[in-house]
Amino acid sequence: MDLSEPPKRPRGESIVPMINVVFLLLIFFLMTSQLAQPDPFDVTPPHARSDAEVEAEPVLFVDDAGRLSFAGAKGRQAIEAITAIGNETAVIQLRADADLEAAKLAAILRQLSEAGLARVELVVARK
Asked: What percent of the chain has pLDDT over 70?
């Protein structure tokens, strides 16, 4: 009869440090990432035969009724907000709805010109 203690099995590696590292990485990526704001309203761009890519950074949204939106500002405040961040050489991106009347678009472009913006890139969808 053998009354000696049986040999102890080696303990497996703990998974706790790996879980800690995963959570630290998750927190790091959540803190350093930037979430994009949703568009203020749905805009269907007009169709055109253009291969040029839009490179402008500030985006001014215009819906089919001619309402303006930029970074939470609406109407005339949107134009004031977009001119406050740019200068005369700045290029802005205009996302206008395809159903927007040409006369309203011309009036908006005139307002942007009077505000001191020299260049506007209109976003279009390829045909």
From this structure: 85
